[in-house]
Amino acid sequence: MVRTHSQTRITWGLTLIELLVVIAILAIIAALLFPVLSNARESGRRTRCLSNMRQVGLAIQMYLSDYTETFPMNRFPDAQRPLSNDWGGLHGSSWNWKRAVLSYLKSVEVLECPSNAYKWESEYIDNYGGAGGDESNWAHTLKLPISYAYNGSFFHEGIPIRVLGEPLHRPRYYAEIPEPSWLIMLTETRVNYPDLGGWSIPQVLALRRGVVEGKGLFQSHQKGINWMFCDGSAKWLKLAQTCMPRQRWTPYDRDQPLFNERATQILEEYQ
Fold first, then answer.
1. Which residue ranges make up each domain of the chain?
2. Prior bond to 167 cis, omega within 30?
3. pLDDT digits (tens, 9 = 90+) for 94-133
4. Distance CA 154, CA 69 (A)
5. Across 65-88, average pLDDT
6. Handedness of CA 20, 25, 26, 28 (dihedral sign)
7. 177/158 Cα distance (integer angstroms)
8. φ, ψ for residue 53 (rounded to 5)?
């Protein structure tokens, strides 16, 4: 028997039900892949952030070499701000650790975390105007990103001293830190401060769920945070891991029971 062309023709059209089944399958596959792709993108941003932190760490190490093994202060008191025509009217709180290491960085962008949605909001501490504090003189204004904050619990304006009766501060020496690879120097933040030194660190940790300036205090990556240590190294740790079994915020294990209490409170959130 000879088959005609019309008998052997195959119809490739899909019925409405078959089309809906295909669409449903594609939707399921997309739903399964989206979290994976999202996590992969965030992992990439976390790696870039960690790389930026290490570059900041290298800049601080170069600063140490140039300034007799002393760290830049989180904020320079007015009487101790660097004298420079470039920064004519800036007062002391405007001169913070970011300003101090800026010349050692390849670009301002190194100071930003790619995951931080608030990184280019106006930072008033770094955004004063020119001579006399005149903000209309934009030639002396530089906007720096918000992403990284000093460990103000240890580096808070150095150590109080008096010179010829005047209250001053001296910076911390590298030799004062018994374990530089253990002590936190920088953390990630969303708030508009160069340091977390306005409160004691246990109080800062207690504010982990709180809102400062309308946003969360810490910037996180996949339930953890990038940290830079005093030797310039950087790593990703969960917040609770910086508190116990041994806290990393101050030397000599000070206030360890209080850190243990805070860590216990945040373990559930940062598991």
1. 15-266
2. no
3. 567 888 888 898 888 888 888 877 666 544 434 333 444 4
4. 16
5. 66
6. positive
7. 13
8. -60, -40
